[in-house]
Design goal:
This protein is an alpha+beta fold. It has helices at residues 12-23, 54-57, 60-67, 79-99, 131-141, 200-204, 218-226, 281-284, 288-295, 308-320, 326-332, 384-402, 414-428, 438-452, 461-475, 486-511; strands at residues 2-8, 28-31, 48-50, 123-125, 145-147, 152-157, 163-170, 177-188, 230-231, 237-243, 257-259, 299-302, 342-350, 355-356, 369-371, 535-541, 544-550.
């Protein structure tokens, strides 16, 4: 198969890349692991869309100042990327509205949640429940060919290191079929790195987390193997402010006050609920729950003082972000919003920071390879709106590449034969008590990461050495995995990436000889100024991971 632009991943970033590339005249194929109508972290909806509206926010400088105060900007960002994102966010919101996604469901631009009381918000409230079906429809209207249940597993490059195609797996039949797709430009939008760090509870119930568990860093690792840089992978993120045991997102959608067991507010921002703000406390202090646990104090979302409109607004927001099951499940157990407080805690721990470095053109370090969305969230941002904008920028530039390039014989490259042999071995492995299935290896990797490098573990060179020993022992079993159907085979391929992501996370962390923020080392307790304003990056050179430092662009036109 061949196309001008191949889009890997059919989430928000991928669908916007496909739409804009098709609008630019390119022939487009989308290769999606699941189904584009309901896939990715935006699968079931969303209710916040970071957006710059000049008539609301004033100047670009005013908006950037607000942006720098938000929870998303906790680490260094490339300001040139931020400015491109800012300038395209309103245009993107208007396009979505034109296509049928309610961006002004209450009549005007509305900014609620994720901000302090009295502060102008930049998170626009919208009704995103239908966003994936709408984006799929718009892509199909433009002639985009969508290959569902066809995940991309490898980026193919030529002798000059330029992207010329990809390996995909057609999982629609009884047996997997390896498909090589030639392309002149490629855009990856495969989401964050889930199922790399986590507890047994979260790995046993895969969808009980804030992000899509099917996003297993496939795109990041494929790009890394092709020569792109990963950055910020030395530490993972922890989602805080979620209903305990119901690890869905929505901390800014809940309307109430964070309180202790006696109902006393634990933060300085609100003492009474307000639908316009929620409670900003955990956005500001993400260590709040760790501190409470150390003191033996549970934390609650207290909605007992809510007005009827507070509750109505909150339920509407929860429905639109795909969190419609939590309250009914609680109510089935006799819970009542006006009588009972909900215990909140920390959610899943993912390598959301397993970032693929891009620039303001959404370009990676591999020529003709672009990326968008939360998989680039380290030197850029995470969130639906950034996914939409970065995806469309990548799609536009990939379409421009297609006008000046010729197709190359991607199917003749050595990586195709190598992967065919590995996939064939896994598919044909006998099911025995000695051969692991994907669950066993996945859980073992997650437990190893949890015990040796998870957020909250005080790390050391000795811990990294032991952790890598255990990880490499598990990686030696990867080609022994067995499966009984194509769905299990897909999970086996995911575990190949999960293992490599875990290894690179440990290698990058071991190279960082300092303590800073949530990253603490017992053997290097002081902060090292050589890391000020820089990210640790890793890229593959001569088949080995090479650690480098990267300084984000801090000034832009």
């Amino acid at each position: 198969m061949q196309c001008d632009v191949l889009v890997c991943g059919g989430g928000v970033a991928g669908m916007m890349a496909a739409i804009d590339a098709a609008d630019a005249g390119a022939s487009v194929i989308v290769a999606e692991k699941a189904n584009t109508r309901r896939s990715g972290s935006g699968a079931t909806g969303n209710d916040h869309f970071q957006c710059y509206i000049p008539e609301v926010h004033g100047s670009e400088e005013d908006w950037l100042n607000l942006l720098m105060k938000t929870p998303e900007i906790r680490r260094l960002k490339d300001l040139d990327i931020m400015k491109v994102y800012m300038r395209l966010s309103k245009e993107t919101a208007l396009d979505w509205e034109k296509w049928g996604i309610p961006m002004r469901p209450h009549g005007d631009w509305e900014f609620t949640g994720h901000c302090r009381p009295g502060q102008q918000g930049i998170h626009m409230k919208y009704a995103g429940q239908v966003q994936k079906p709408v984006l799929t429809r718009e892509a199909l209207k433009r002639g985009v060919k969508i290959l569902n249940r066809t995940p991309m597993t490898e980026i193919i490059t030529n002798e000059k290191g330029e992207a010329i195609g990809a390996i995909c797996l057609d999982l629609n039949g009884d047996e997997p079929v390896m498909q090589v797709i030639r392309a002149k430009g490629i855009v990856i939008g495969t989401g964050v790195g889930s199922r790399i760090v986590g507890t047994v509870e979260q790995s046993g119930w895969m969808f009980n987390q804030c992000y899509c568990p099917a996003n297993t860093a496939d795109g990041q690792l494929a790009a890394y193997r092709a020569g792109a840089r990963l950055l910020g992978i030395d530490n993972e993120s922890v989602y805080v402010g979620v209903c305990k045991f119901f690890y869905r997102g929505g901390k800014a959608t809940w309307v109430g006050v964070y309180t202790d067991l006696e109902g006393n507010p634990i933060g300085p921002y609100v003492s009474r609920p307000d639908w316009r703000y929620g409670d900003y406390t955990v956005d500001v202090d993400r260590s709040l729950f760790d501190k409470a646990q150390e003191n033996g104090d549970p934390i609650f979302m207290n909605c007992t003082m809510n007005s009827d409109y507070d509750n109505e607004y909150m339920r509407w927001g929860l429905d639109n972000e795909g969190n419609s099951a939590t309250l009914p499940a609680l109510e089935d157990e006799g819970f009542s919003l006006d009588k009972h407080m909900i215990e909140f805690g920390t959610g899943s721990r993912e390598n959301k920071f397993l970032g693929l470095k891009i620039n303001a053109r959404s370009a990676t370090d591999v020529p003709y390879l672009y990326a968008g969305g939360s998989m680039c969230g380290q030197n850029a941002m995470v969130g639906i709106s950034f996914a939409a904008v970065s995806g469309r920028v990548g799609g536009q530039n990939a379409a421009a590449d297609a006008k000046v390039r010729e197709f190359e014989a991607a199917e003749d490259r050595p990586i195709v034969r190598e992967r065919a042999e590995l996939y064939g071995k896994i598919w044909n492995n006998e099911v025995t008590t000695a051969s692991p299935d994907w669950r066993e290896l996945n859980i073992a990797i997650m437990q190893t990461m949890w015990n040796y490098v998870a957020n909250g573990v005080k790390k050391s060179d000795k811990l990294y050495q032991v952790g890598l020993y255990h990880l490499h022992r598990l990686m030696g079993k990867l080609d022994q995995m067995h499966c009984t159907n194509v769905h299990e085979f897909m999970h086996c391929v995911e575990v190949l990436n999960i293992a490599e992501a875990a290894e690179l996370t440990m290698i990058a962390g071991q190279s960082r000889k300092e303590s800073r923020g949530a990253f603490q080392r017992a053997d290097y307790p002081e902060q090292d100024p050589q890391y000020d304003g820089k990210y640790i990056t890793v890229r593959k050179i001569n088949d080995k991971p090479v650690i480098e430092l990267y300084t984000p662009v801090q000034e832009a036109e």
